[in-house]
Known about the structure:
Blueprint: E1 8-14, H1 17-32, E2 39-44, E3 48-51, H2 64-69, E4 73-76, E5 83-86, E6 90-96, H3 99-102, H4 106-122, E7 129-131, E8 134-139, E9 142-152, E10 155-163, E11 183-184, H5 187-191, H6 197-213
Parallel strand pairs: 1-2, 3-4, 9-11
Antiparallel strand pairs: 2-6, 3-5, 6-10, 7-8, 8-9, 9-10
Amino acid sequence: MPKIPSIQFESLGRRPFAEVLEMQLKLRRRRQAGEIGDRVLFVEHPRVITRGRRPAEEDFKISPAELQGRGFEVADAGRGGRLTYHGPGQLVAYFIVSLTMRKLSIPQFVRRVEESVIGSLGEFGIAAATREGCPGVWVGGSKIASVGFSVDRGVSMHGVAVNVDPRLEDFGVIVPCGIQDCEITSMRQLLGRAPILVEVEELLRKKIAEKFDSPSPLVGEGGFDGVETG
């Protein structure tokens, strides 16, 4: 069997959510057609609240109209799950990956993404883990990274958002991922300093390559059933 080409990485800097969503849609169509290989886009967004496919209007603590007046964008994401916040100081990685070509189930795929984040945080001395029934990456009872995907014709979109140094108070305008009393943390809060995003990105690139391009399958891969967010 021919070897699957390694994942390619691209850094986009700070870009509006809508612009990068359109970019993902175009790339996914090209990946489905076999015109390009797998790739991961790294980006930082201006302040935006994104809606998933689940009804979640009750998760707005402040109305969308008022949020827009306060400088937040409110956008439909087309992924699974409910409301998620993105903003400056948060590193987002979007995965345009063929699960079909890599022979991965959705739970296996998500588990590899989560493990990539856990491994990266471990390099900074942060002991992170997953939680049963709660997608994402956690440090104790606090969430440090959210995951959310959509998969169409075997190819993924969307990804993971790692809280490096965002304004934590910005998460308070919603019920993040529909989890009541969900405490949000960041690398700055845990370390007492904020690593630069490019440093975190470089580590995450390395860990993603290890998890996805390693010739050996991971042991004990699990995850949640379906395409969710958290």
